[in-house]
Specification:
Blueprint lengths: L2 H6 L7 E4 L3 E5 L9 E5 L11 H21 L4 E5 L15 E6 L17 H8 L1
Antiparallel strand pairs: 1-2, 2-3, 3-5, 4-5
Length: about 130
């Protein structure tokens, strides 16, 4: 059984900040920034590709609500909502989850940077067709 399933079944303690019939939100034990939260479906899905629409809809609605509350409570300057799918994208726990990460300034402990890759967008669009 995965670690998040154990948390959901209350076999492992966690700091729960939200719960309903579909999702659970907890403070991440790692706290990359103050207030770092994980939101996960109560039903096990390995990643976003497996989850049903109702669960995904609930996860994003709750993420938006919690993001606003976290930003206000901890006086954050911004929020990142992040989802990793599969190891190549940084997924380390095979249970769908979103990270809600309050941001305070450019010197906090997270780096999220987008740099041009040199890939031609026209070629990508042609491959998509």
């Amino acid at each position: 059984m995965c670690i998040f399933c154990k948390i959901i079944k209350q076999e492992i303690p966690a700091h729960v900040i939200y719960e309903d019939d579909l999702v659970l939100a907890i403070f991440d034990i790692s706290q990359v920034t103050k207030g770092h939260t994980l939101i996960m479906p109560k039903k096990h899905y390995a990643n976003i590709y497996e989850a049903d629409d109702a669960v995904l809809e609930r996860m994003i609605i709750v993420s938006r609500q919690l993001a606003g509350r976290l930003k206000k409570k901890f006086n954050a300057s911004g929020i990142n909502i992040l989802n990793n799918n599969e190891p190549a994208a940084g997924q380390t726990v095979e249970h769908l989850h979103f990270h809600i990460i309050p941001r305070y300034d450019e010197n906090d402990s997270i780096i999220c940077e987008f740099r041009p890759s040199g890939i031609n967008v026209g070629q990508v669009a042609a491959e998509w067709k």
